[in-house]
Design goal:
Layout (H helix, E strand, L loop, with lengths): L1 E3 L8 H4 L1 H25 L2 H27 L14 H27 L8 H22 L7 H30 L3 H29 L9 H9 L4 E13 L2 E10 L6 H19 L3 E8 L12
Parallel strand pairs: 3-4
Antiparallel strand pairs: 1-4, 2-3
Helix pairs in contact: 2-3, 2-5, 3-4, 3-6, 3-7, 4-7, 5-6, 6-7
Length: 306
């Protein structure tokens, strides 16, 4: 006997915070334009690297918004979960963009070693300060939502990296102004490139976990098993599967062995309601599917999973 609750597929985690992403996108695009112009006028590679990094952030946020719109499309017979995984694919594209940007920046920095050009430090400094202020504003906008969505989290981490990048550009500008050490600009650009890679790696790792249908972080199968076994009438549980469709949409299924007497119409409903309430309240998993099996039939089951 199978049972499923809460089949509705509303807004995904990214979709719920769409207005935050739109605001950050507008801020980021505006700052990118200012920094590109500033880099052209000042000759600063570090400022151009920061602008390139912020441009990748803008692209990532745009992809996330597009994916959230696609993910909101209804499910069909061909795609029973709809397009919710589009958000995960967008996060993957975002991570790959970060890797490409860091490689390009690093390559240009290597090319400039030993031949650092003159830099207009006043323009470089003002543009970097503007970038830092904009990044700080974006962080405040995204802070409350970054734990709910891979894409919002990705945007948050990218903006945090941008803030650190802006600080690096500010420091480089001050060093050049005070000491005349022009290589500080190249060093700062290398630091920005290096800062991007760990963030890209963490985002890629989370995306791979979702695509491989790994158990969501913070969820322990052992504890779920104990809760299910504590329900009156339950004898055993096997074939437990817990995975994530997209950020904020965990899914659970299991075969639950119950006493034969429980499988009356009313008894089965009571057990299923208790199981669903347990999973929803203790483990924040609303989309649960249970297959009830009489204890007398358990010997025919092939226990291949947890």
């Amino acid at each position: 006997m199978g049972h499923d609750h809460n089949h509705s597929h509303g807004l995904t985690a990214t979709g719920k915070h769409r207005n935050r992403l739109i605001a950050v996108l507008a801020i980021t695009v505006a700052v990118v334009l200012v920094q590109v112009i500033g880099a052209a006028l000042s000759g600063s590679l570090a400022l151009l690297a920061d602008a390139g990094h912020m441009l990748s952030d803008a692209a990532g946020i745009f992809i996330a918004l597009l994916a959230a719109w696609i993910a909101a499309r209804p499910a069909s017979d061909l795609r029973t979960y709809g397009y919710q995984r589009a958000e995960v694919l967008a996060a993957l594209a975002n991570a790959l963009i970060l890797v490409v940007i860091s490689v390009v920046i690093f390559s240009e920095a290597i090319r400039r070693i030993g031949s650092a050009p003159d830099v207009q430090t006043d323009i470089m400094l003002y543009a970097a300060i503007l970038g830092a202020a904009a990044n700080l504003a974006s962080l405040l906008i995204l802070r409350g939502a970054q734990k709910e969505s891979l894409n919002v989290r990705g945007a948050y981490l990218e903006v945090l990296g941008d803030l650190l990048g802006s600080f690096a550009v500010i420091a480089a500008a001050l060093v050049i102004m005070l000491t005349g050490f022009r290589a500080a600009d190249t060093i700062a650009s290398v630091l920005i490139a290096v800062m991007i890679l760990p963030r890209a790696w963490h985002l890629l790792r989370d995306v791979v976990d979702v695509l491989l249908e790994a158990t969501p972080k913070g969820v322990e199968v052992r504890m779920i098993r104990e809760h299910i076994l504590s329900v009156a009438g339950v004898v055993a549980v096997h074939d437990i599967h817990i995975w994530t469709i997209t950020s904020g949409v965990p899914v659970f299924s299991a075969h639950v062995v119950v006493e034969d007497a429980v499988l009356s119409a009313r008894g089965a409903d009571q057990v299923l309601d208790k199981l669903t309430t347990c999973l929803g309240s203790h483990f924040d998993t609303e989309h649960c599917t249970f297959q009830l099996e009489p204890a007398s039939h358990s010997e025919h089951e092939s226990h291949q999973h947890a």
